[in-house]
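Long-time lurker. I teach an intro course on protein structure, and each term I like to show students one example going from raw sequence to a predicted 3D structure in token notation. This year I'd like something fresh instead of my usual example. Would anyone be willing to generate the tokens for the chain below so I can use it in lecture? Attribution to the forum is fine with me.
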Amino acid sequence: MNKYILVLIGLVYCNSNAQLPFPLAKGNVWHYTIEHQFYQPPLQNSYRTINVIGDSIMPNGKQYWVLDQVDMLGGQYIRCDSVHIYYWQSGVEKQVINLSDSVGAIDTIRWSGFFTSRCTGKYQSTLFAKPANIFSYSLGGLLFGDLTFASGFGYSRYEYHADQPIETDVWKLTGCIISNTLYGTTDVEQAIQELPTQFALFQNYPNPFNPSTTISFSIPKKSFVSLKVYDVLGRFVTQLVSEDLSPGVHFRRWTPIGLASGIYYYRIQSGTFRATRKCLLLR
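-- Reply from a regular --
Happy to contribute to a lecture. Here you go:
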């Protein structure tokens, strides 16, 4: 075989197997503890597990990894090269994070309610006793948040400021499975199984959203739960839950069809517990 062909094959193989900063592969799993800070009344921690369930080639010819649910930034189809993290939504690829930014650099991103990303820090540290390059970003726009990325692991911390001025959700990576290797402790898996001690309705994510969002709530005992959505005038839009549910944290994905951009309210009722939160649909 021609030696130049052999070299070309070797280069393709090396590039396809290069170690990328975001370890996206089928079977990888991330466990997050979500601390709900400054809520009144106070809310206990909740938990989120995100799995890579497969991959897909998009019309632009790029390979995207498919998550089993949207992540903290509201994406479900994601890819990474050596310096960028991209999401795919509604037929368009969007670059969201630029790992090559210098500290202080600002990018225009226009993703899930965030319009800008500013690099606030780059340094070396360890995560789960393994060396990692750390990148931190401040996200701004209709929403405000802070994101930390760790090379070799992915997103390690995310702080989201909810609709209320002081309410904050802080996602902390407490364990992950990368290439069949467990990092962190099994305490994460045990915590996920713990039953909540109170009723709670959490802020949807992403918010604002398009085309879908996830609404989560907790119930401490078996209960009949009703979860409805209303428009800004109080008119009924849809019912997401109307059934008996076992105790735990539950999730419902809402993909509105034929609705205009605007503010909507989702309302939960279970026995004497009632709670309402607002969300923003952007077309």
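Some talking points for your students: The first helix runs from residue 3 to 16. The helical segments are 3-16, 187-193.
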